[in-house]
Specification:
The protein is mostly beta strands. The protein contains 2 helices and 21 strands. Strands 6-7-11-12-15-16-18-19-20-21 form a 10-stranded antiparallel barrel. It has a 4-stranded antiparallel sheet with strand order 2-3-4-13. The longest helix is centred in the last third of the chain and has 18 residues. The N and C termini lie far apart (56 Å). The relative contact order is 0.16.
Length: 347
């Protein structure tokens, strides 16, 4: 029985003061057919597209699973969501974007997703030249409980749920480095450069295992919650081998604190370690672009006095998109709203 469920994924960005304050007039590229509307701004290291609408189609696979390992043996169990592949489309303008994705029945991974659900919500915000704020929310329903990663020793719990909310506050040290060129393509990296990016990350997670095992009929009822906060220095590098190709890679390693509680156990405070890998490739021809993103976040901490937990978030996306000129009416409306906001904020 296939799953016919649309998942709404809203990505909202709020841009602050212009990141191009240092650009000289001769570096600005204007469309001469439309008076006073700038469609591209360029410096030595990067270009932006302030008055173009960016549209894209994508395929994405992401989930959040939990691995609990016994301290005194090699035994462990995995709590894995009933994975879904999704396809969708998005549109954005001046850092505000929305997208819609769904899990079609014709994809093989989705055919056994009976009663399972996946909902994600996220945004990425840039403030000035250096600050970046991200937010993520996961809601999943339908999990496999596997012992020692064996399909022979596993049960499917269709009513089990996971809720996770959190994000990161980051400081991009090198203002010539474009993180937007990696994530949203409303900027383009023109020259290779890297940046040290210190981050503070924070997540709250809650797992509820509930229901009758579809294999044994036994009733399972268990809950677990966790709060994580860590300081995670990272380094990213954007390599531009040709004018239209961007290859990007980065890694972060952090340390912090975890507060967690399992049902029937006392609350536990323990050391938290964070490890995050990210890689991306984008091919950009004028306003047409395509590419892929991959990232993997691992949060390690104690689950209770006798076991450790690894909280994993893998993410993979393939996309193709196009930037087209925004209508004059939309540009005028956006300028009016920005001017009103600037007056209120006294910018």
């Amino acid at each position: 029985m296939g799953l016919k469920l649309g998942t709404l994924n809203l990505l909202i960005g709020l841009t602050g003061a212009s990141v191009w304050a240092q650009i000289t007039p001769e570096e600005i590229v204007q469309d001469t057919t439309v008076t006073n509307i700038i469609y591209k701004e360029a410096s030595e290291y990067k270009a932006s597209y302030p008055n173009r609408i960016t549209a894209r189609a994508f395929y994405v696979n992401t989930s959040n699973d939990l691995k609990i390992k016994d301290r005194n043996s090699d035994d462990f169990f995995n709590l894995e969501p009933n994975k879904q592949n999704r396809i969708g489309a998005s549109i954005s303008f001046r850092g505000i974007s929305g997208s819609y994705s769904f899990a079609p029945d014709f994809m093989g991974t989705n055919k056994d997703n009976e009663d399972s659900k996946l909902f994600t919500l996220g945004f990425r915000t840039f403030f000035g030249n250096h600050f970046m704020q991200t937010f993520e929310l996961f809601k999943e329903k339908g999990f496999y409980l596997k012992f020692n990663n064996s399909d022979d020793i596993s049960v499917y719990l269709p009513h089990s749920k996971n809720f996770k909310i959190g994000g990161a506050t980051s400081y991009i040290w090198n203002e010539n480095f474009s993180f937007r060129a990696i994530t949203s393509q409303d900027e383009k990296q023109l020259k290779s450069t890297g940046s040290f990016i210190p981050r503070i990350i924070y997540y709250y997670s809650k797992f509820n295992l509930e229901g009758n095992s579809t294999e044994t009929g036994d009733y399972i009822d268990f809950s677990y919650y966790s709060f994580d906060i860590a300081f995670a220095p990272s380094y990213y590098y954007n390599y531009v081998p040709t004018n239209n190709l961007l290859l990007s890679g980065g890694i972060s390693a952090g340390i912090g604190l975890n507060h967690s509680k399992s049902e029937g156990e006392d609350a536990l405070n323990s050391l938290l370690t964070e490890l995050n890998f990210r890689a991306a490739a984008t091919y950009d021809i004028d306003n047409l672009y395509l590419g892929a993103h991959y990232s993997y976040l691992i949060l390690n901490h104690s689950a209770d006095s006798s076991s450790r937990a690894a909280d994993n978030i893998p993410y993979f996306q393939i996309f193709v998109g196009y930037r087209f000129k925004a209508p004059k009416s939309l540009v005028g409306f956006a300028d009016d709203m920005q001017n009103k906001m600037n007056k209120k904020l006294k910018i």
